[in-house]
Amino acid sequence: MSRSTTDPALASFLDVGPAHPFPIQNLPYGVFTPPDTTVPRVGVAIGDCVLDLALLNQEGLFEALPLRSTRPFAQSTLNAFLGLGAEAWAAVRERVQELLRADTEALRDNASLRERALHARSDVTLHLPVDVGDYTDFYSSKQHAINVGTMFRGAENALKDNWVHLPVGYHGRASSILPSGHDVRRPCGQTRPHDDAPPVFGPTQLLDFELETGFLVGDGNELGTPIPIDEAEEHIFGMVLVNDWSARDIQGWEYDPLGPFLGKSFATTLSPWVVPMAALEPFRTAGPAQKPEPLDYLQAEGDAAYDIALEVDLQTPAMSAPHTICRSNTRHLYWSMRQQLAHHTINGCNVRPGDLMASGTISGPTEDSYGSMLELSWRGERPLSLPGEETRSFLEDGDRVLLRGYAQGDGYRVGFGTAAGTVRPARCGGAA
Ligand code: CA
After folding, report:
1. How high is the pLDDT of residue 68?
2. DSSP string spanning 133-191?
3. Which of 62, 103, 414, 426 is the most buried (most CB within 10 A)?
4. Which CATH number covers residue 312?
């Protein structure tokens, strides 16, 4: 009998401890290059290993699966697999899990196959998992919207009228999406530090991170045909961690009236592993109550938030280890992913496999759960104290920011790994 793919009692023939991010209940997808080749392919993380799905498919282990005669894993991105849709994702997940189970012989007892299909994660090169065609960034944490609104417009005008009626978002920039580990160059731009003086040009003085998650669209919709909210979850493949790096001074000067532009488009860091929604199913929970009641096209039955613990670690050049500066949770998001996708397509806009929809900064109710330096230091008024008597209001050159996330199950964890990036000095005059 097949068991639920999230059964806590499932065990792999590979040894995976209870606090490990990648047990058999998780099986996140990524793109990697093994040490003995230059050809990227799709794999799944299991414990400290990566399982080569392209090889398993080539060896005939996926013969019974509805893969439509395609080669979705012999690819340098997940896009082809995402486009196959929910039925194929479920079938592949069940089969991969079966092959990794302690009581399945096919891989466990085939030393030659194991040797070729399983690689130590420390030996492989991980890549950006998807080719993101379009990137949309929402603004779905009410606490974040209130914090930022309070700082810039005062407490009485913190939330704009539209915020509680629709998931506010903007179209981001896909070309500067970076894999975890890629450096982030401090951007240069136009700012106006003093309201009574002309703008100036130079490196941003207010560089920030934003703690976000994002979901990847699977099969998309036809132009002109919205995705109804009751079907939205079938189009959502999985989730990643997102650091939406931001230059607050550039953003503050440019955003009126059309919104974020160059203050956001210089870098966005993704975690390498895409956690499938199937692995997150046990962690569904009720989101915040929505008042006023949203319009009909944004309403659906059942819980649509997820209990995923998030944290941000900062390591300055003077520190010997990262220090946690924020702990938050995706359950704080006011607007759910299905509401975001239904809203995004309600005008007929088409979405495509691999599109990235980010949540917006996820700030919780307490000061230590704020998901950006802007909020943690309250615009620089309350600099953060770090080990070694350092302080930070915004990010400095050499600072390394790591996002982490995991959902805690009964005796296992569904982890996201990390999304990391280090700030490098500005080059305002071009390449130097
Ligand atoms: Ca953002």
Report:
1. 76
2. S-EEEE--BHHHHHHHHHHHH-GGGSS-TTTTTS--EEE--STTEEETT--EEPPEEEE
3. 414
4. 3.90.850.10
Q: State how many domains the chain has.
A: 2
Angstrom distance (rounded) from CA 91 to CA 63: 11
Q: How far is the CA of 372 from the centre of ligand 1 (A)?
A: 10
Does 340 lie in the same domain as 292?
yes
Range of the domain at 80: 29-126
Domain boundary among 77, 96, 126: 126
Do 79 and 200 lie in a common domain? Answer: no
Task: Please answer whether residues 167 and 115 qualify as being in contact, where contact means their C-beta atoms are separated by less than 8 angstroms.
Answer: no
Distance 282 CA to ligand 1 centre (A): 27
CA–CA dist 279, 356 (Å, integer)? 19
* Distance from the alpha carbon of residue 386 to the mean position of ligand 1, in angstroms: 25
Q: Which two three-digit tokens encode residue 111? A: 């030393």
Q: Residue 134: pLDDT band by 50, 70, 90 thresholds?
A: very high
Helix (H, G, I), strand (E, B) or coil at 279: helix
Residue 19 domain-assigned (yes or no): no
> Quick check: helix, strand or coil at residue 298?
helix
User: Which residues line ion ligand 1, judged by CB < 5 Å?
Assistant: 137, 210, 244
Q: Which of 119, 144, 235, 344 is catalytic?
A: 144
Do residue 51 and residue 200 come from a single domain?
A: no
Catalytic residue status for 323: no
Q: Is residue 121 scored above 90 in pLDDT?
A: yes
Residues 58 and 157 in one domain: no
pLDDT digits (tens, 9 = 90+) for 398-412: 999 999 999 999 999
Residue 62 and residue 114 in one domain: yes
Note the pLDDT tens digit of each residue in 20-36: 999 999 999 999 999 98
Q: Residue 3: pLDDT band by 50, 70, 90 thresholds?
A: low
